[in-house]
Write a structure and sequence with these properties.
mainly alpha; 7 strands
C-alpha cells in the first residue's frame, strides 16, 4: 500500500516537467459527441464539440492545432502541460461544466489503450523484441499515469469552480502588496466551510486552532513566517482533509443507518492509537506573539493529524474516530494512490515553489536559506481551509475516477 508520507522528504521534491512524449489524445470532432449536462445551457464552443442537449445538436468546426489548446489564463496554480491537460485547462476556463463529459471520453480512451497493451503483452516475444516491447510499454504506462494525474487535478479544480471558490494563486515574493503581504487573495472562508458537514467542520476548527494557537480568531494581524513551514502545513492539511473526508463519509452513512457504535472510550487519543510516527510535533505556526517564528519544525513524521486528538473541542466525529482500532485508523490516514500523492506534491510546489533544502552530514535538515513571508492570520486560515477542502475533493475525485478507470491499489 502506498503510504502518505510526503513530508519526510522535501515538499515538492518532484520534477514539475512532463515527458515530451504525448499520450493518445481523443479529439472532439463532429463525430465525437458527448452529452451536455442537463442542468447547463447550450453555448457555442470552440473545440469542435458536437454537443447533445435535450433538444438539438450543434456542430462546431474543430481546431487541429494543439497550440490552440493552451489556455490564455489560469484558474489554478499548477499548469497542466500534456495535450489532454491543456485541453481540459481550456475547458475549465471557458466551459467548466463540460469537464466531466470530456474526462469520461479521455478515461474511455485510457482504458482502451491499457487493454490493448495488456493484450499485446500476452503475445509471444523473445530476445531483443521482448526488451524493446517492455521499454515501450513502460513509457506508455508513465504517459497514462501523468495523463491520469492531470485529469484528477482538472476535476478537483472544477469542483472548486462549481462551489464558486477561487484557488489561491502561486505565492509571489516580493509581493505586489505595499505592505509586503502575500495574501492578496479574497477570503472565502464561509464558502469553504459550507462544503463540509457540520461534524467535519467541528474537526476542521480544531485543526485550525491547533495550527494557529490562541490567535485562530484573529484575522487582521500580520505574521512573518517561514515559507517552507507554511508549505508544509498546507500539504499536511491537504492530507488531513483527505483523511477527514474518508472518515466523515463513513460516519454519515452509519448515522443515516442508525448503526453508530456505542460505549466509546474517550480517554484514548488518536495519536496513541496510531503511534508516535504519525504524531505532529508542533503546537502552532505563528507562536503567541505576532511576527515571531517558531524554531521547531511544523510537522514531523508522516501524515500529522492536525490536533484531532488534542481535545480542543468536543466533537461527535472525533469520538467516532476514537472507536477505531489503530490498524483501521492508519488505513484511513493513508493516501491510496501514487497519483494522488503526486498531485499533492506538485500542487504544493506550484503554490510555494520548490524549497531549497540541504541535508547536513549529521542527517539534519538545514533550511537556513528558506525565506520568510508576511501573511495575515486570516490569509493563513484561508490557506488551511482551502488545503483541507482540496484534500476532501481529492478523495471524492480519486474514488469517482477509480470506479471508471481502476488505478487505486486494493
Amino acid at each position: 500500500m502506498q503510504t502518505s508520507t510526503l513530508l519526510g522528504s522535501s515538499i515538492g521534491a518532484v520534477s514539475g516537467s512532463f515527458s515530451p512524449c504525448r499520450p493518445h489524445f481523443v479529439p472532439f470532432t463532429t463525430k465525437s459527441c458527448f452529452k451536455y449536462p442537463p442542468h447547463s445551457k447550450s453555448k457555442s464552443l470552440r473545440w469542435g464539440l458536437c454537443v447533445e442537449s435535450k433538444r438539438r445538436y450543434s456542430a462546431i468546426k474543430a481546431s487541429s492545432s494543439f497550440d490552440s489548446l493552451r489556455p490564455a489564463a489560469s484558474v489554478a496554480p499548477l499548469q497542466l502541460e500534456s495535450p489532454i491537460g491543456q485541453f481540459l485547462s481550456q475547458i475549465l476556463i471557458s466551459h467548466p461544466h463540460l469537464v466531466p463529459a470530456a474526462v469520461e471520453q479521455q478515461l474511455e480512451q485510457l482504458q482502451i489503450d491499457r487493454d490493448t497493451e495488456k493484450h499485446n503483452e500476452d503475445a509471444s516475444k523473445t530476445g531483443t523484441d521482448l526488451v524493446l516491447y517492455r521499454r515501450i510499454a513502460e513509457v506508455k504506462h508513465n504517459e497514462r499515469r501523468r495523463t491520469l494525474e492531470e485529469i484528477l487535478y482538472a476535476l478537483i479544480v472544477q469542483k472548486f469552480m462549481d462551489a464558486n471558490v477561487s484557488l489561491v494563486p502561486a505565492l509571489s515574493v516580493p509581493s505586489s502588496d505595499p505592505s509586503g503581504r502575500v495574501d492578496t487573495w479574497p477570503h472565502q472562508d464561509e464558502k469553504l466551510e459550507k462544503l463540509h458537514s457540520h461534524e467535519a467542520n467541528e474537526m476542521i476548527q480544531n485543526h485550525l486552532t491547533f495550527i494557529l494557537g490562541n490567535r485562530s480568531s484573529d484575522s487582521s494581524s500580520v505574521a512573518e513566517v517561514s515559507k517552507l513551514k507554511v508549505g508544509q502545513v498546507y500539504a499536511a492539511s491537504v492530507m488531513y482533509g483527505y483523511f477527514l473526508k474518508r472518515i466523515d463519509q463513513r460516519f454519515q452513512l452509519e448515522k443515516t443507518m442508525k448503526i453508530l457504535p456505542g460505549g466509546i472510550d474517550e480517554e484514548r487519543s488518536i495519536e496513541q492509537m496510531i503511534g508516535d510516527d504519525t504524531r505532529p510535533n508542533v503546537n502552532n505556526v505563528v507562536g503567541d506573539s505576532v511576527g515571531s517564528v517558531q524554531p521547531r519544525p511544523v510537522w514531523s513524521g508522516g501524515m500529522g493529524l492536525g490536533g484531532i486528538g488534542e481535545g480542543i473541542r468536543p466533537s461527535r466525529l472525533k469520538t467516532y474516530v476514537m472507536s477505531f482500532d489503530a490498524e483501521t485508523l492508519q488505513r484511513y490516514a493513508t493516501i491510496r494512490s501514487k497519483e494522488a500523492i503526486d498531485i499533492v506534491e506538485k500542487h504544493t510546489e506550484a503554490l510555494f515553489g520548490k524549497p531549497e533544502i540541504v541535508i547536513s552530514p549529521e542527517g539534519r535538515v538545514d533550511s537556513s536559506d528558506d525565506e520568510n513571508i508576511k501573511i495575515s492570520l486570516g490569509g493563513l486560515r484561508r490557506l488551511v481551509l482551502e488545503a483541507v477542502t482540496f484534500g476532501a475533493f481529492l478523495w471524492d475525485i480519486e474514488s469517482h475516477v477509480d470506479s471508471r478507470y481502476h488505478f487505486v491499489a486494493n
